[in-house]
Amino acid sequence: MINVTKTFLPVRKSFDKYVDRIYSNNWLTNFGQLERELTEKLKDFLGVNNLLLTTNGTLAMQVAYKALGLNGEVITTPFSFVATTSSLVWEGLTPIFADINSNSLNIDPNFIEDKITSKTSAILPVHVFGRSCDVKSIQEIADRHDLKVIYDAAHSFNVRVTDTSESILNYGDVSTLSFHATKLFHTIEGGAIISDDSNLIAECRKLINFGITGYDQVDGQGINAKMNEFSAAMGLAVLENIDFIIEERERIGHLYQKLLPEYLLPPSIKNSNNNFSYFPVLFKDEDECLRIREALIKKEIIPRRYFHPSLESLKYVKQQSCPISKDISGRILCLPIYPGLSENDQYLVINILRDLL
Prior knowledge:
The protein is an alpha/beta fold. It folds into two domains: 2-239, Aspartate Aminotransferase, domain 2, CATH 3.40.640; 242-356, Aspartate Aminotransferase, domain 1 (Alpha-Beta Complex), CATH 3.90.1150. The protein is built from twelve helices and 13 strands. The strands form four sheets. A seven-stranded mixed β-sheet has the order 2-8-7-6-5-3-4, with helices on both faces. A two-stranded parallel ribbon has the order 1-12. Strands 9-10 form a two-stranded antiparallel sheet. Helix 2 (33-46) packs parallel to helix 8 (229-239) and helix 3 (57-68) packs across helix 4. The longest helix is centred in the C-terminal third of the chain and has 18 residues, at 242-259. The radius of gyration is 20 Å and the shape is globular.
């Protein structure tokens, strides 16, 4: 079976050397040696000043909302993984959906301002598929209305602005990452909070550790969202292989681009690199999309409808009109892309699409 993704596992020797250190230290969690080491290596690799590791990417967002003191309404995109919306609702915030741009598939700044009310406290955009948002326009809107900006950057590991090579994670008040097992870089389960504001990171660090600030000292409310040492060990071992992982994804992505040019997303990535965290293709309508999906599944090739359904249609949110997102979510599929996908298997996927279309 060829799945849409396959978790990268480093060789056992690489992982085991970190596990041996855990057994030697007898320190399994609570900001251990490996967690601290992974933090510093990721800061260096990603080009960010402050990074806080968390249990997962969803909790990273929820902790960021708390640290920023968000309340009321948050303007966000309807075209994303469900966690973008559910994390807001879980924290008692109301998602207000601004439709997406049909080229970038990201939240369209032209639709944001009309959604702002006296209840709005923040904007939560997503760099969908690692395609960078219009960060300049979004920040200008936020500054005019005194709003916070939190980027759900779950897909944006190693995405950089083309002109400056600056990490896309350095924009907004906060960016959050997911290190789930299906991601380009993973720690089995995990995530991170990134911000240039050292005081904000210190507040988040307190929040992910029950509000504890010292021995027998609890300074306010908190939860448990720390990364454990075994997850950090996996992250360190995966990071040793990151150049190979990136090269493999580029190899696969470039072949798809060459042989399926008519089904590529609009070429909107003008100011940042493509990290090939996903490989989405867009069909003329939902019927064609579903027909292709079924044909692939019959050959034991499992694409995914990332992202379906459009989030404004979820039962637990106020129904809102986002026609562009609804249209795109109905006719998009993500094809298999992961290190180790053979050229023969990739040609099998490509040939099925070309034969049916």
